[in-house]
Amino acid sequence: MSRVFLVGAGCGADAIGARGLSLLRRCDCVIYDDLLDESLLGECPPDCEKIFAGKRSGAHSAEQAEINRILVSCAKRHRLVVRLKGGDPYVFGRGGEEALALREAGIPFAVVSASTSAIAAPAAAGIPVTHRGISRSFHVYTGHTRDGEMPDYALIARTEGTHVFLMARSRCGEICRGLIEGGMSEDMPCALVSEAGMPGARAVRGTLHTLPDLIADLPAPAVLVVGKTAGMDVRSDLPLAGVTVAVAGTGEYVGKVCALLREEGALARPLGVAEVRALAFDSFFERMMQFSVLAFTSSNGVRVFFARAKEKRIDHRAFARFRFAVVGNGTAETLAEYGFYADIVPRVHTAAGLAERLRGTQNVAVLRAEGGNPVLGEIGEEFLLYRLYYDDEKLRRCVYEAERADILAFSSAQTVRGLLPLLSMDRRPPIVCIGEETAKAVRAFGYTPAVAKDASAESLVKEIVSCRD
Ligand code: SAH
């Protein structure tokens, strides 16, 4: 039996809930809007059908009937359909109409609530929508209706509490004036919060009288908050609060860096610039008895290697005869996950450092990525385990994110070469690198990067934090 979930993506990046994410990771089809964190689409299974139904497609609200039809027809073709909407599906998202259309068509559905911009955007700017002794209620309005009908300003002006206007960017001046004319004090604090929880997030504060003149360059989407709590400022004071850091690279390393960045308060954006695609290296397994040292140059390589060994049902006891060499601690840790502890780790954690350390060693198999440092070819026989593959759509999204970030972090020279030449940056954000090899690649494009003390995720994050000091 097919089913449809109306899933809220929450406000800004990283705001989807656990239930929504779990459904997204298993769905057969996703129908998504604009104004949500597009990198979420990367969470869908690879063969998931993705349908864009946002405003950019020309599907204006008048064409809601068309979206309802798409929903019903997808439900007939697929088992699990996710209708992914920005913020909460039932807050000015027309989710209720979609639910009714599904019910009418006899299709089972459920709604998965999430944080709404009405609460989360003010919060991101340090404004609580309620606060003991200051505001005992909050009210949410649309600043934009199809028939142009405006809210009853006199009624709002008489109502205590915090007033939040969505879809308010283009009507901000009009709303502020309306409230003053409706009897609200022109000194009432208010704020416009733009792109909350996303790269480029900004907020401007003022009063009903001053705000309209202060916001010329703030883009939509934005919420307008009016009320005494808009005069509060309880923003985070963590070192990277309000800072967007884009981290380019592959694999878990980027995930770990992002997790640590979040602990420092940053908006962390993993940029999966390239995908790891295994190559054919079965000849290694056929001839592996000829070797005595296996040299790995990356965590990705270790994973691809053991995944292939598993497919070939190779018993791990066959590896007992080898000594293992790795380029650095990250690779050593990944190797340890498979129950092998590295015998050889060079002092300098680079391909050149590893080559130096292994020079003169007999029967070395170098297990590495295509396009790496050729110096390793001199110390043993090379087997190419994987290739980094650049998908145009993913790359486009990475460029978009990277160009908006306050700080860029790179965890490999290859991702630098894949991404950096595509960026057109008028601002030149600080760039932080995992190590000297990566820094060299960055310098080749005319930037002056900061370099982490060592290749660990902790060290990279420390360097990023010190960029802000
Ligand atoms: N269902 C959504 C609202 C959809 S209406 C929710 O619950 O948040 C779209 C409006 O939401 C925008 O015009 C803007 O007012 C607000 N909005 C959405 N995302 C936002 C963001 N990241 N920052 C500020 N406002 C946002």
CATH-derived architecture of the largest domain = 3-Layer(aba) Sandwich
Q: What's the main sheet like?
A: 5 strands, parallel
Task: Classify the helix fraction into a percent range.
Answer: 25-40%
> How many beta-strand elements?
20
Shape: elongated
Overall number of domains: 4
Major sheet: order of its strands? 3-2-4-1-5
CATH topology of the largest domain: Rossmann fold
Distance between the termini: 56 Å
| Small molecules held by this entry | S-adenosyl-L-homocysteine
What class do helices, strands and sheet pairing give? alpha/beta
The CATH first-level class of the largest domain comes to: Alpha Beta
The low-pLDDT segments are: none
> What proportion strand?
15-25%
Radius of gyration: 27 Å
Note the total helix count. 15
Average pLDDT confidence is: 92
Describe the structure.
The chain has helices at residues 18-24, 64-77, 95-104, 117-124, 153-158, 172-181, 251-263, 282-287, 299-311, 329-337, 351-358, 392-404, 413-419, 436-443, 457-468, and strands at 3-8, 29-32, 49-52, 80-85, 109-112, 138-142, 162-166, 189-194, 202-207, 222-226, 244-248, 267-271, 275-278, 293-296, 323-326, 364-369, 381-389, 407-410, 431-433, 450-451. With 469 residues, the protein is α/β, with parallel strands linked by helices. It has four domains: 3-115, 3-Layer(aba) Sandwich (Cobalt-precorrin-4 Transmethylase, domain 1), CATH 3.40.1010.10; 119-231, 2-Layer Sandwich (Methyltransferase, Cobalt-precorrin-4 Transmethylase, Domain 2), CATH 3.30.950.10; 244-274 and 390-468, Rossmann fold (3-Layer(aba) Sandwich), CATH 3.40.50; 276-389, Rossmann fold (3-Layer(aba) Sandwich), CATH 3.40.50. α14 links the parallel β19 and β20 (450-451). The longest helix is centred in the first third of the chain and has 14 residues, at 64-77. The N and C termini lie far apart (56 Å).
